[in-house]
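User: For my dataset I need records formatted as: sequence, then structure tokens, nothing else. Please produce one.
Assistant:
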Amino acid sequence: MPQAQIDVSEIHWLMDMFRTVDVGLVVLNCDYRIQVWNGFMENHSGLTPSQVRDRYLFDLFSEIDEDWLRRKCDPVILLKNRAFTIWEQRPYIFKFRNYRPITGSADYMYQNCTIFPITSNSGEVTHLCFIIYDVTDIAVSRLELEQMNTRLQQLSKIDYLTKLYNRGHWEENLIQEFKRLQRYSHYSTLLMCDIDHFKQVNDTYGHTAGDLMIQKIADAIRLNLRETDIAGRYGGEEYGVLLVDTTLEQATHFAERLRHSIEQMVVMYNQMPLKVTISLGLAEFNSTMKQHVDWIEAADKALYESKVSGRNQLSCYQP
């Protein structure tokens, strides 16, 4: 076969590969005018090579941050080194819609990009070549995994029934606050409360009614919380609320407001109106407490005092 035919054959398959390869190939001159635009770019942009040739890149694609891209490309031109961008740093260079059915949750194509210099015979950089990789599958999987891990982390802290913090996470917060109060002269107060005659609710109406009652009390606690307060389900029908930077006197107002709101509450179960009350105990941190459990025991003692004194009332721990 004559050499000319071999050369033409090689050019043909090179051009065919250039058109059909599943990555974007873009060549710019040093003035950022488009010289080469392959089939991948045409398919995703809707612009043919003839439509983009010699057009200024940033006029055609206004979503590209010109200052950022020039900073990325300057070292490529000056040092003749490659540069890379990844989707974690910037989701895309060219904002193409995502048409993949498997990764349909993504609105646009996530991209990695390699930028390398093209030099003349004299070694001068005359053009920049961009290789655009569609990494939407990888990006979506990674983001979904991160979201799932975040969700699992949140679920590990939350009580399933009440949606308040579970005992473990709530107690971790209590320990941190206890250590803070030992170092600094601040005030914080611990509230412990539980549902009065809860066993009677379970025995009379069943555990489903009991669970509903636990949820409604938790909702009432949540409605009364301030932004800095930390509430949790301590166990069974008992709750704990850490009132940060709150004196005993201030905490009394919170506790009475909570007690009154629950006293006025009516819970509908199977079209039956149920009423319930809570007993509460407050304990302000003091320096004689050596461990956080001392603080819990103090609030529990105050709660016990409310129980034996007739329930539906608030008692405060006196050291």
